[in-house]
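Lab meeting, action items carried over

1. Structure of the two-component assembly. Owner: GW. Status: complete.
Input record:
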Amino acid sequence: MAARAPAQRAAPGGAAKICQFKLVLLGESAVGKSSLVLRFVKGQFHEYQESTIGGNFSAFLTQTVCLDDTTVKFEIWDTAGQERYHSLAPMYYRGAQAAIVVYDVTNADTFARAKTWVKELQRQASPNIVIALAGNKADLSVKRVVEYEEAMAYAEDNGLLFMETSAKTAMNVNEIFLAIAKKLPKTDSRGPGGVAAPGGAQSGNVELKPDGAKAAGGKCC
Amino acid sequence: MASEIEFLGEAPGSHYSGDALLLADEEADDSVSVSGGSSTPTSQLLAGGVGSAGPDTDAVASALQAGDLEADRDDDDDDDDGAANPSSSSQPAATGGTAAATAASPARRPRLASTSLKEALRAEASVSSRSGASAANANAAASSATAGLAPAASSPASNNSASSTASDKPAPQAAHQSDSVVESAEDIPFNWAADEKHIFILSNAGKPIYSRYGSEDRLVTMMGVIQALVSFVQDKNDTLRSIIAGDYRFVFLSKGPIILVAVARTGESEMHLSSQLHIVYNQIISVLTHTQLTSIFEQRRNYDLRRMLAGTEKFFDSLITLVDSDPSFFLTAVRCLPLAPTIRNTIGQTLQQNRPADLLFAMMIAEKQLVTLVRPKKYPLHPSDLLLIFNLVNASTSFSAAESWIPLCLPKFNNRGFLHAHVSYLDADLETDADAPARSGSGRVCLLLITTNKDLFFVLSEFRKQILQSLQATQSMEAIQDALDRENYRIAHVDIAGLRHFIYKSKNTSQFTQPELEAPYTTPEERQRLFRQYQHVHSAIHSTARPLKIYFNNGSKEAMLGWITTNFELYATFGPLVTKSGAIAAVNRLLQWIKHEEDKLFILNAQVF
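Predicted assembly:
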């Protein structure tokens, strides 16, 4: 199995601030959400990953990264992409500070579905949510049907972070999480908020961000 | 076969006082198994069998004849592989014309092997699905069937007939090849006769939902036949329960908006196949709830339910495999991990201490064995619900990668709503913050915390940590690991001459125990054969027409004994030379041994709060 992810670990006691963020992964089933998370959290990749870690159900994982003087702890909800669980999705993105919407570059339907998720997040999630779009399975370039430029243009229009990723080769996996961490407002979470309770939007979120996610809220192609 | 069946008086000896209810009383289970003495009028179609009488049967039979199925099989004694024989006389028009035309040809004498049965029925199916379930005449059948099949016959004209029957007429060598190639489905005949047992699920509208083998899409026509058969009989205010054709038994279960069908040449009884269909149906409910299932089809009769069940195929596959090898399912009982009662109590207390208010059930499962179960006093957990949970845990190999949060419906507990389950392995490394190297997939001991509150995840996650600490403090984890490492007990421990194997079910607790299978039951074939023997004894004892108290059959390979009392069911296997009195003496000694070991083998005192 693959080597351990090189993501920076929290230096014990060294970091000045600790931030905790709730992050949710959304996207059609079988686009590789669980694979991305497993790559990020455990440095592993399974060619035949069972549909969602828990077998079609939502799974919860955590990972900590160091960013300058801040320790960022991600609490990650890997949600099930199946249609029947769509109605449960708000439970997971409600109160999330960040979302990664994943599609499969070899499947145009999943890109269309990703756009729907982005719209739903812009409409219903916390207004400051940082949304990243991940075009996964980028290693399968021969089968590619969603072009980089197309997705990039969409992401720019909507103020999304965008990267093409590959859980298999680890390409851009840590990077996309780090990019999100950089974009998130760093308020020390050891005050109120604490462990992200479902639905509890964090108070620090009132800070406006210079670009992106927020500005695009509500209007979209 | 030298068989003796005896009725004895009320069996002696009660082994448990009635208080040790861990699980729900089994009475409720009666609603699951099909009762032969059911009050609804039912008819059993014996196609090609010894002519069975009764007005309903006749009506159906004549309707079937409209599709040119004759209840006449004088040349059909070689049915075994008839279905696999493409050049059989049942396909006279294979070189020209469509299969539908063939089916409608009055001169044809169809074999009553399943192939021809299905083919003939399909002709009728097309009629029924077009013009309602009426007894249309053969000509109508022919034309509709032709029209209905024409689009499917897309392969070259020279191969027309073969392709239009591709979904159910197998070619001898095409065996499992068909499963792997999906793209060119129409070109490759689906050799459905190659497999012993099939389960099909379809909607009342005839849309495929699930097939154990092959792709549902290619079975559309067969689904149509099934739908037509069921609705035809329903039209007469009757219920189609089963059809016997050659070695095959077709068992039908119509449940609300869906129809389930088992097709088997395993020799299993109708009762068992039907109860397996109920189990599969409950699996659907556990994913969707009864409410959702009903409302989906109320809104759109034509709905393709596969969209809602996407990703759950493995639970069905696993379940259907398990019912063919695990006695839990026909016994409706679970197996417990053998543990000293003091250890089990300690673990049970750990699951109860400081439990969150909304916790409903807490349980630990290790390798398909129950370690312990804690529940509220007033809410028993039905064993068949528990078996669905076992299947869920068993079929998901990667719960050990993370804590999971699962909406789950337990049909016997409440089929209208979801419970939420926090599922994790206690012995897998989930602490990703820790410095320990990442590993996953190593978990054996699964903890399930089930609640009605969908927002309780983080509370339960904390509770899990507390349980883990407490288990480590009391060294219970080691005890469980030891019990798992230690192999199950062997028949030698029981030390009764001639006894090869047994299954003992304690009816009060809905739990059972069995030793390891040993020689001569070491090959998969022999194990499967023994399993079928047990099923056979079980259905003989539970036969609604003629229930037995004691069953003894001295066969050529082994002697089987079955014994049912108010407190237990016992199934024992002896060498073929044992005498009946010898066997009875042996089981009496066995009962003493079980009595001696019962506090280890069973959970006698339910942990309730």
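2. GW to write a short summary for the group page. Key points so far: The two ends of chain B are 53 Å apart (CA to CA). Residues 415 and 539 of chain B are 28 Å apart (CA to CA).
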